[in-house]
Each structure stands twice: as structure tokens, then as C-alpha cells.
Amino acid sequence: MAHTAMSGTGTIAGDDPLQTAVWRLRSRGCWTDAVALLASRAGAAPALQRAALLVERCLFTGDGWAEAEDALRTAEALAEEDDDRGGAACERGHLAYAATVLGVRDRADEARTALGRAAALLAPDAAGRPLLDYRRGLIAEHIADSSQAARAAYQRAHAGATARADPLLLSFTWRHLAGLALRDGELAQARQGFAESLRLREELGYLVGTAPALAALADAEPEPEASRLRAEAKRLFHLLGGVPTWLSPHLTSPPPTP
After folding, report:
1. Cα–Cα distance, 67 to 189 (Å, whole number)
2. From its phi and psi, is residue 63 left (phi > 0), alpha (psi between -120 and 50) or beta?
3. Which end of the chain is more exposed for a tag (fewer CB within 10 A), N or C?
4. Is the pTM of this model over 0.90?
């Protein structure tokens, strides 16, 4: 991705008005409209960004799998540089991960293979490396059930996102590290991480990710704060038309963290 556009705020790549508009739509869960804005852009990088947006839509809505697959095949066909090939492999792995954790189809082996290919293609200092590390952490936590491997991957991603000033990716790494801390009974550490994740998402205007952040923080807070946070999460969830769909059954109890 031209990894900044997807893992970052979407507004920092030379203050490109198009990327700013894409970010505003993406942050509100309007992925199809965001992709339409990019239709006139040719080349590997725009194709990869379109694919990444559609993969994200699958994860948040549980829908649009065929369109995401088509966009990924286009991005893979256009990729000529290792960074583009690695980015496409990272997105393929993420799509396979989403299908697995959402119960659409078990594609765990495909997810591991694709992320392994991305790791071989992306240089250690490549722009897409922190996002890849984060996604390898997701595989370790939610498919392999290895909290130790997940923590190590999230920490690498966190360090990379910090070095690259990528606040959106930091909001994800803070949240997932906090989730592991909560699992270990480290309430203060969990509370700090969830609060940082929420703060970053609110500052960025990342509305589609704010309800999950509120619900996650609620899991680490005592009453009555926990109920207040969940009520706010529920309000945002309904405001955005029930997205992300996987949050719905968990607004009164600990949510999953795809």
C-alpha cells in the first residue's frame, strides 16, 4: 500500500486532496465510495489501495468477498516491484484471515502462506513492514492461539508504527497489546493501551473503529464507567448502520478483536 494510505491517516501523503477524500469515506465505513474515487488512478499502487479498501470492507461487514478477490487479482497482476508484490501478498493474507475468523471459510493455511510471502518480499525497513508484523500478530493470536508470538509481533509493529508516525496502526497495536494484557490480568496496562487506542481513533476521526475501541476500554473499566462506554459504543454502532457487524453481539460483554 503505498502502505501509508491504508495503515496511516490517509491525509499525509503530500496532502493529496484525493487521499484526504478517500480517508474521510473510509473512516465512516464508506469503502465502496472510497474505491470509486480511486477508479481514475492507474498503476500498481492505486490498484493495491483499492484492494486493501475492499478487504477491509470484508472484515468490517462480512460481505463483498468476490469483489475483494477480483481487486486483489488485479493488484497482483499489476505488481512489478517487490514492495507492490509484498503489499498484495499482505492483503491476500489479511483477506484469508478475515474469512477464517468470521467463519466464512477456513483459509488459515492460505493466510499464513501469503503473509510468509509478504515477509520474504518486503525489506526489513519497507514501509509496509509494520502492518505486516501487526497482521502476523493477528494470525498468532486468533488462529494459532499463541499469545507469546502475538505479543512479539504486535510489539514489532508498534515500534515500526511509532518510527513511521503511523497513528492509525498505533491505535491497532495499542488495542491488541492491551487485549493480551487484559487476558493476563494486567488491568492497569490494559486500561492504558485501550485508552491510547481510543484517543488516537478519536483524534483521527476514525469513526468506524471508535465503537470497538470504546467497547474494548469498557472491558477494563469498573462500573459505572464500563456501562457508559458501552452505551456510547452502541450509539456509534447504530449511527454507522451496524458496522462492524462482529461487534453486535458483544456490546454488553467483551468483544472479539479481529
Report:
1. 40
2. beta
3. C
4. yes
